[in-house]
Specification:
alpha+beta; 5-stranded antiparallel β-sheet; 30% helix; globular
Length: 107
């Protein structure tokens, strides 16, 4: 489960990541710094009917980002309890971030 404490303790160059499934839909969400005081959530959701949706919160303070994520997870109540992992912003994650940003611009 993501908390304000986890977001605020995220170091530069690290991300919080959640991968899960609920109600037949799958999702991957990454939270990263955009500045020392702002964060961004980027996500890819594949619905059970195979349609893909990309989500980008844009830069937000940690408290607003947490509210944004809570609203997004209203659709998947079970997803609110899925663990979030902290890891370095590696090449694979940077590629995912680029993919989501590009797709979110088009939408």
């Amino acid at each position: 489960m993501i908390t304000l404490h986890k977001i605020n303790n995220l170091a530069e160059g690290q991300v919080l990541e959640c991968v899960g499934q609920d109600a037949g839909d799958t999702f991957r969400i990454v939270v990263k710094h955009t500045s020392p005081s702002h964060y961004e959530a980027l996500g890819k959701v594949t619905l059970r009917n195979a349609s893909v949706h990309y989500q980008s919160s844009g830069p937000m303070t940690a408290d607003l980002l947490l509210k944004w994520l809570d609203t997004m997870f209203d659709r998947w109540p079970g997803a609110k309890t899925i663990p979030w992992a902290v890891h370095d912003l590696d090449d694979k994650t940077q590629q995912f971030v680029r993919e989501v940003r590009k797709a979110a611009e088009v939408a």
